[in-house]
Amino acid sequence: MTYTALLAGTGKQLLHFDEPVAVFQQDATTIQTGDIEVNTLLLKQGEELVCLVSIDTLYASTNVRDAVLKLLPAESGIKTENLILVASHSHNAPVLDDTKPYLCKCNPAYKDNATKVIAQTVIEAINALEPVTIHFGMDANNLGINRRALTWGRTGIIPVRKYKMIPNPSGPVDQLLRSWQLRNSQDKHIAVLWSFGCHPVAYPKVNAIHPDYVGDVRAQLRKNIGRELPVLFFPGFLGNIRPALFGKPTNLKDLFYFAAHGQIFKKPTIAGYNEFCQSLYQSLKKSLDNSHKLTIEGLKLARTTVALKTLLKSPLPGSLELFALSGIGKQLFLMASAEVLVEYESLLKPHLDLTDETIVPIGCVNSVFGYLPVDKQLKEGGYEVDLFMPWFSLGGNEFYDHIEHEVIDPWVAIARRSREPQAIKQQDGESII
Q1: Which residue in 9, 15, 375, 378 could disulfide with 36, CB within 3.0 to 4.6 Å?
Q2: Burial of 178 (0-12, 13-18, 19+ CB in 10 A)
Q3: Are residues 44 and 110 in the same domain?
Q4: What would the pLDDT profile of 213-268 be if each residue is shown by its tens digit?
Q5: Beta-bridge mates of residue 304
Q6: Residues 101-143: pLDDT tens digits?
Q7: ∠ CA(371), CA(416), CA(356), 5° rounding?
Q8: Contact 368, 338 (CB under 8 A)
Q9: Are 85 and 366 in contact (CB under 8 A)?
Q10: Residue 201 placed within a domain
């Protein structure tokens, strides 16, 4: 089968702050210590179109996506099913989702302005389409660590074993940093994409606007490749993974966990943070230096939704969005509107005959409803299972005892269909592109 050339266009804009905005669990601030950006990539092959928007934000939302769509030319071909907003999940970046006020309050004026800026980058990308090649590389590092561990806690005054947010060196983690270079017919970079499955919670200043390691690695990359280069970051399945940055005890609780586990999570010094970012950049550089060209055959995006009422016991409107993008080499980009726990990688791989090189896990797209644990963890409890609920405006809710099949079955189904030669437009009322 003969395929048409892959076309790509990019856009890049800064987000500005005309008034104070809040960051994660902090009051509104005007202190800005790093650029907050929107970086957009439009991919087109034949009739197939995919628009990926990487935003420095704690969370994006489908409301913003729908508002962006209204600002785009009708003839663009961009619609609900192929416009995907990917939040960096940087905890020092403002939120674009007004449904989680306990985590971070959304400034309406900032949200409206960001919507216009996102639309502007998409229009830039539409107007910049040109033939490209894609080069993929990866590098393993030890910069992320599992944050779920069984330890002692209390229920009232009774000591009990609980899963806490503490370092778990033996827990599963995706150590791979993945990268993609897009080059035009003159072999010039037009964009770099990279993915890493680790919470961006390393930046040490809590009440400041900053994109965390996402922005500082981006800045270092631009120094070496090009200052105006669009750089898109895709968070992996980072639900239970955070930076391997540790500190010393500062109170009795810290001392207890430090004595029990030898490590505790603490915000690093600026020097420690900069060292972490430099190590992460070096891993990215290795992946770029060792990249190889991918064959683009039949770019295809598939989407489906899972009603939240099938995952959560209390009836709740809304849905979990699932995407599968194929045709970029043998890779399968599996995206979800949740903070997906890393165990889903090992669950999905055998169903789709995937390897570390061919699976591309991406979380935090569009409207994130909360965390997505696996069945085993539902019995264990912990922040990613039930304690997160009140913070995400889901107080009083809980997962059903078995949810894996409700997620994996439809995800695998659309992934398999995305690999078929002919697109399927409808399946059980859901859009398949």
Answers
A1: 15
A2: buried
A3: yes
A4: 999 999 999 999 887 899 999 999 999 999 999 877 777 777 777 766 778 788 89
A5: 322
A6: 999 999 999 999 999 999 999 999 999 999 999 999 999 999 9
A7: 60
A8: yes
A9: yes
A10: no
Q: Are residues 305 and 348 in the same domain?
A: yes
Residue 206 in domain: no
Q: Are residues 273 and 323 in the same domain?
A: no
Q: Which residue among 107, 131, 155 closes a domain? A: 131
Whether residues 383 and 405 fall in one domain: yes
Buried b (16+ CB within 10 A) or exposed e, 43-82: bbbeebbbbbbbbbbbbbbbbbbebbbeebeeebebeebb
Residue of 328, 367, 314, 320 whose CA lies nearest to 344: 320
Residue 11 contacts by C-beta under 8 Å, 6 or more apart in sequence? 38, 39, 40, 120, 121, 122, 123, 124, 125, 128, 230
- Asked if the structure places residue 329 within a domain, the reply is yes
Could you tell me the mean pLDDT of each successive run of 10 residues in the chain, 433 residues long? 86 94 93 97 96 98 98 95 98 97 96 98 98 98 96 75 91 97 96 98 95 98 91 98 87 72 83 97 98 95 97 93 97 98 98 97 98 97 96 93 97 94 42 39
What Cα–Cα distance (Å) separates residue 288 from each residue in 138, 178, 180, 223, 293?
Answer: 7, 9, 7, 15, 11
Evaluate whether residue 141 is within a structural domain. Answer: yes
**Per the structure, how many domains does the chain have?**
3
